[in-house]
Amino acid sequence: MKPTMETAAEENTEQRPERKGCFECCIKCLGGVPYASLVATILCFSGVALFCGCGHVALAGTVALLEQHFSTNANDHALLSQVIQLMQYVIYGIASFFFLYGIILLAEGFYTTSAVKELHGEFKTTACGRCISGMFVCLTYVLGVAWLGVFGFSAVPVFMFYNIWSTCEVIKSPQTNGTAGVEQICVDVRQYGIVPWNAFPGRICGSALENICNTSEFYMSYHLFIVACAGAGATVIALLIYMMATTYNFAVLKFKSREDCCTKF
Questions:
Q1: Alpha-carbon torsion 70, 72, 76, 82, what sign?
Q2: pLDDT of 23-55, one tens digit each?
Q3: Beta carbons within 10 angstroms of residue 26's beta carbon
Q4: Which residues, listed in sequence order, are joined to residue 113 by a DSSP beta bridge?
Q5: What is the pLDDT of residues 118-134, one digit of tens each?
Q6: Which residue, among 236, 235, 265, has the nearest Cα to 250 in the 3D structure?
Q7: Cis link prior to 157 (omega < 30° from 0)?
Q8: Measuring CA to CA, how many Å separate 36 from each of 30, 106, 116, 190?
Q9: Which of 85, 106, 44 is nearest to 232 (CA)?
Q10: Which parts pass through the membrane (predicted)?
Q11: Would you say 105 and 41 are in contact if contact means Cβ atoms under 8 Å apart?
Q12: Predicted TM-score (pTM) of this structure
């Protein structure tokens, strides 16, 4: 029995360093993960998905509302229909571009961490690598400024639908419900510039406006525009995180390129 116990003890002693080495390897790998870039990628994918998906459906619902209630003549809103159709195609392009760009930035974050150095040998920066990193910095800043404009633009339909909804709430209020003044409360979409001034009817008042607000198309489009605006805001936050990550990566690659160093951001 004694040799057997000694053999088991020796086997346990041999297994402990292996387990410890595997644990240390996992810790090193987790320590080299670019968490900021990972969070930004998840936030960017979520924001772009919400903006593109909800915005596409909301635009289609807006066209249906205009055709059914505010502009019965197709020639009056033909230009608007073409613009909305073009915007829907642009949404497809935005979704595809940011899917690829998010993956590229995440890969760039992984390949500038200490985990890559430890897994793939000596880490050395090159002029080409620093140039690519600088290009990502510039492109991310440009996209961040552009998405600030997209975020502001996405708030415009939310403002328009909110005005219509608040007008309907005034009509439904006990002070005005059932009185003659209800028919004098109107919404004129021509003042927003989305349809020309000769569009018919263009202006909806009273109970007819209340019926529009009770439709599922109105509420769906209104809430989808809100979600799309929130998605655009999430994308702006993700790009701000990307800005910090790429700027930090570029700074370290540039100023510490001669040292045995890489980023952990």
A1: positive
A2: 676 766 666 677 888 899 999 999 999 999 999
A3: 10
A4: 263
A5: 444 455 556 666 777 78
A6: 265
A7: no
A8: 13, 9, 16, 46
A9: 44
A10: 38-66, 86-111, 132-156, 224-248
A11: yes
A12: 0.79
Neighbouring residues of 78: CB distance < 8 A, sequence distance ≥ 6: none
Q: Which single residue is written with the structure tokens 């760039």?
A: 108
Full 3-state SS string of the chain = CHHHHHHHHHHHHHHHHHHHHHHHHHHHHHHCCCHHHHHHHHHHHHHHHHHHHHHHHHHHHHHHHHHHHHECCCCCCHHHHHHHHHHHHHHHHHHHHHHHHHHHHHHHHHCCEHHHHHHHCCCCCCHHHHHHHHHHHHHHHHHHHHHHHHHHHHHHHHHHHHHHHHHHHHHHCCCCCCCHHHHHCEEEHHHHCCCCCCCCECEEEHHHHHHHHCCHHHHHHHHHHHHHHHHHHHHHHHHHHHHHHHHHHHHHHHHCCCCCCCECC
CA distance 73 to 66: 10
